[in-house]
Amino acid sequence: MALIRLAQIDELEGTPREVAESGQAQYGKVLETWKAIMNKPDMFATYLPFLRTVAGPGVMDAQLKDACALYVGFLNHCRYTVSHRVTSAAAKGVSDEQMRDIVNAEWTEMPENWRAALELTRELTLNPQNETFGDLPQAAQPETLAEVKKHFTDVEVLELAMTIAMWNALARFHRVMDFDLDMPEAPEGVKPE
What we know:
CATH superfamily of the largest domain: AhpD-like
Number of strands: 0
Largest sheet: none
CATH class of the largest domain: Mainly Alpha
Strand content: under 5%
Number of domains: 2
Structural class: mainly alpha
Radius of gyration: 17 Å
Distance between the termini: 19 Å
């Protein structure tokens, strides 16, 4: 059961309602996350367009973007985030086997750019809790950052870092809110414990 009351579209007016209705048209339902954020309509009106800008089409490969988001959800042990990212990745052609390889860090058969992006994902998700600013100012190893710069343009690095950061924030939000799953559960081997 969600930590807070979940609002409904009919409580919204103006731009927040238009944004909610466009999301409902896109997904065929109103997601639990949205219902929570709709408690503050102005926040919701900016949240969904921002999310679409970060998670939606950009210059970075869409499958890779979803792979990194899935890995963030898995590393944060968030069933809700993982269920959403699995659904999105599968729609873009990522197989269950590839998803299992992603979350189990079995990346040897993946392209170098995927390995670099997934390593950055791991480091930016796990290191901030364990590494001080003085020891690791950018929260990622210099070698990892160099590898990312080798494989991606500046705009791709921007999209990658923003994707990782945003899904870390959302996975933690999803966990504390304790939403019911509103997308299919992740397949075995991808579902966080």
